[in-house]
Amino acid sequence: MGYQIELRHLKYFLAVAENLHFRKAAEKLFISQPGLSRQIKEMEKELHVKLFDRHNRQVKLTPTGLYLKEALGKNLNDLDTILNHAKLLEDGKDGKLNFGYVGSAMHKIIPELLLKFTEDHPNVIFSLKEMDNQKQIEGLLSQDIDIGFVRLERIPRGLEIKPILNEPFCLVLPKEHPIDNVNFKRLSQLKDEHFILFDPEYSASYYEKVMTIFDDNGFSPQISHNTIHASSIYKLVENNFGISIVPKSLQVENNPNIKFIELNKIKQRTVLSAIWSKDNRNPILNHVLELINK
């Protein structure tokens, strides 16, 4: 056999299959386009299959190519996880875990989890990345992250989810605002205010839940700003650009220019959940899940 398929050839195929463009795939692989085209043709020849239809400068996967992309994508991710774990062991590390999270999870949940986990596993490396809900779903399915912390009520098949924090919402007001914990009765008292809310693209389901709070109070909010960071919300509130509603876990005590009123008499609550893939083979993930499930 004059040509043998190696791991790099499978990665070449996946790069073209994901980009459907030989030049873009070659740039990502740091090889020449003619070289990449030659490797793919040799692979097709060796396997006696046609992986791509090429015509009018368009590249499309054949049914065989589509099957191979789906099958290889999953298994090569598993192989990368195994090889990366082996390298970490050689370096004296027990492994690595990649976290995705919405911002509120970093205020208390994740730091407490990591502190407890490192007591028994001091040699684990953690990678932490703030991501919106949808990006976390994509990252879990592609195994770019091992575990996520989301505010979602529905998840795709193949993923597991466990609620870890069920909490009320809080109003966020400038410190000198006339409404306080003593005279606050209902949200409709603030119907003429401008509201600063988390961007719906950051978490559509969370945004819709917040909207039901306004629905139940009989008015539509005047939304002046949308943002994805709690720190931006607080800066806007303290400078009198509006008021806000956030999960209680985002309440801070070190900002003297804003105040919080817990909305503990409304039915709406928000849930922060851990989420992971059933197919993830990272051995460190199971140890973290054991701690979460305690």
From TrEMBL:
Keywords: DNA-binding, Transcription, Transcription regulation. InterPro entries: LysR_HTH_N (IPR000847), LysR_subst-bd (IPR005119), WH-like_DNA-bd_sf (IPR036388), WH_DNA-bd_sf (IPR036390). Transmembrane segments: none annotated. Residues 5-62 form the HTH lysR-type domain. It holds the Pfam family LysR_substrate. It comes from the Bacteria. Belongs to the LysR transcriptional regulatory family. This is LysR family transcriptional regulator. It comes from Flaviramulus multivorans.
